[in-house]
Amino acid sequence: MKFLLSLCLFLSVFFAQLTHANLLNIMPETVDAQAWSIIDVQSGQIIAEHNSHVQRAPASLTKMMVAYIALKEIEAGKLKKEEIITATPIVSTVMWDESQMYLKAGEQISVDQLLAGLIIMSANDAALTLAEKISGSVPQFIVRMNQEAQALGMKDTHFSNPAGITMVDHYSTAADLGLLAQAIVTQAPDYLHYSKMPSFSYNQRFHRATNLALKTDPTADGLKTGYTKAAGYNLALTAERPTFDSVDKRRLIVVVLGTPNAVKRAEVAQKLMSLAYTYTRDEEVIPKQRLIAELPVIKSTLKMFKVETQQPTIVTTSLYAQSTPIDLNTFDLLTQRIHLPDLNQQITSVEPLQSTNTHINIELNQQHLTAPLTQAMNLATVSIYQNNQLLRSLQIENDVQIEEANLFQRIINWFSNLFSLFSTHDSSKTAKLYPLNQG
């Protein structure tokens, strides 16, 4: 009888540990923002951060969550961009000095227009109208906002309104808003269609995008600006630029909170963004479908279980060799380089490294597998280092489904194992590791 073996290998790679050391050591006093974070989307690594877990007023960066939920509803087929919504009396609760589309109760407007007004105009009436449409009421939508925040791991965030109005129990952090931004660009990329638009008009009201970085950086896709007196000037910015490395395109996210004005928030975000692009890079350290290890299988006709990658593993490495911390004021946006005095006090540019010293360590969490098995198993830990600094530690989890051999097959295996006793070495009973170290 033919033995049926279902071996479904789904490699799920997730962060088990990230070092808290910044890849780029930037002097906080040279960054004109109260809190900030730089995130690499491909690896998920934090390139640099300061006060990123300090709770602050997010202002209109709150609306990123509103748009994220709305776009998820569209993706799920529960909402359509072309759908026409009738504004309810809730729009009259928006105060005269708040950003708005000036919607009137009974006015009809499409979801597409509401999303544009929400993201580009930062319209509070658009936020309230979408909230009511999606959840039936604003209080119920706020519950949804906090549920989504918890699902994304935004542990230091609590939303109390959809618009970003300053309230004691309405807060977030640069790190949490970075998580939300990552979710947007990976799960709801249609958001960028709106956030990179330079302007938007509705009912003969023209609004120019307040994200000044859009004017000076053609690779920028926006995200969201925000301002209140309590928050200061906030900005979540993302850009995608081509590379000449193993990763074709690279997307970074910068979140800056509490800058002094609109010009400064764009300048600081752009400098942090470009600094990270110049002095870090993404490397594919483990390619797709790479054999990591083989584990012996007991009580099955399958002798060895192959642990293979299903997706490439990307790691972000530093290209900055100087030992001194980085003064952001020494980075020039025009040349995209840090400029420092040499031994002769001549100003020279600091060139990024052309190669990095990375290596990989693999530890098996299982030495063998015993059939029958139908479960997800944590089989290995992969740790990636640069110059002996841990950059990223990954758990390799596989969905293992192995049938147990029948009685006849076990007898055959018993005879096979008996004969193997006379051999000098039976390599099939030993777990095998395959080297992945980089040069």
Summarize the structure.
This protein is 24% helix and 31% strand. By secondary structure, it is α+β, with helices and mostly antiparallel strands. The radius of gyration is 27 Å and the shape is flat.
- Mean pLDDT, rounded to whole units? 89
Q: Note the main sheet.
A: 5 strands, antiparallel
What share of the residues lie within helices? 10-25%
Arrangement of strands in the largest sheet: 3-2-10-9-8
Overall 3D shape: flat
Radius of gyration from CA coordinates? 27 Å
Question: Total number of β-strand segments?
Answer: 22
User: Which stretches are poorly predicted, pLDDT < 50 over at least 5 residues?
Assistant: 1-20
Distance between the termini: 49 Å
Structural class of the secondary structure composition?
Answer: alpha+beta
**Beta-strand percentage?**
25-35%
Number of helices: 9
